[in-house]
Here is the input.
Amino acid sequence: MKMWSAFLVSMLMMAPIMQANAKNYPCSGKMSGVSHCKNGKFVCNNGKISQSKKVCTG
Here is the structure.
């Protein structure tokens, strides 16, 4: 039981860190992640082009 509690506490402490990383990733949040790359721009799973300044390849 103590191990489970320690795991739960550590996950709760990491949640803000994971959210901060998501804000810096193209197509995060409501955009549902990156689908593919088109002309150096990230195309999100919801079909919209990411506003990210990062350039993708592939």
Notes: The longest strand covers residues 34-38.
